[in-house]
Amino acid sequence: MDQDPAARAEHDARTPPPRGAHRVLVALSLGIALLGAGLDQLTKAVVQDTMELGQTIDVIGSALQWHYILNSGAAFSIGTSVTWLFTIIMAVVVIYVVTLLRKVRSVWWAIALGGLLAGATGNLIDRLFRDPSFGMGHVVDFIAVPHFAIFNVADSFVVCSMIGICVLLFRGIGLDGLPTQEKESPPAEEAGDA
């Protein structure tokens, strides 16, 4: 017996994806994270191998430059004396995002969390393994645009992913891909009895 398309679509939206689909979404997130963190580390290695610390190269005039610096703090070099704190925060973010992946049932959330994981991992690698010491490493930053902090590929992944996460939250889309109001409101039969 055929259902009408609207009823079938609503049933499909409420039915969780098969277990294999969840594995694909986790693989998508981890793939984005690996590629993003790899791209971040590759670009940082190229900058370190081809530029002198403090050197600036015009890419698109003064609108986009490569300006090689080492950053022991956060954006705009805030908190340069508490590098260890940023290392701990990044490690917590990485662990938290990995635990969230167990709940992901949405392609958009998988992409956003994969990007966030890429950025946090890329900068965490710097904090853990770059000079001056383990856990106190300075992050390689090199992308310079006017009137903004100098940043790197990992930072770009974090910012773009956080924008995506904000859009998903603003639209009320949960990790499972369903609108959050559907989960919060009681079923129609129970609401009518009250």
TrEMBL record:
Location in the cell: Cell membrane
PROSITE patterns: SPASE_II
Pathway: Protein modification; lipoprotein biosynthesis (signal peptide cleavage)
Matches recorded under HAMAP family: LspA (MF_00161)
Class of enzymatic activity (EC top level): hydrolase
Function field: This protein specifically catalyzes the removal of signal peptides from prolipoproteins.
Pfam families for this protein: Peptidase_A8
Gene Ontology CC terms: plasma membrane
The protein's Enzyme Commission number: 3.4.23.36
Protein's name according to its UniProt entry: Lipoprotein signal peptidase
Lineage, opening ranks: Bacteria, Bacillati, Actinomycetota, Actinomycetes, Micrococcales
NCBIfam families: lspA
Family per record: Belongs to the peptidase A8 family.
MF annotations from Gene Ontology: aspartic-type endopeptidase activity
Keyword Phosphoprotein part of the UniProt annotation: no
Keywords attached to this entry: Aspartyl protease, Cell membrane, Hydrolase, Lipoprotein, Membrane, Protease, Transmembrane, Transmembrane helix
Gene label: lspA
Reaction catalyzed: Release of signal peptides from bacterial membrane prolipoproteins. Hydrolyzes -Xaa-Yaa-Zaa-|-(S,diacylglyceryl)Cys-, in which Xaa is hydrophobic (preferably Leu), and Yaa (Ala or Ser) and Zaa (Gly or Ala) have small, neutral side chains
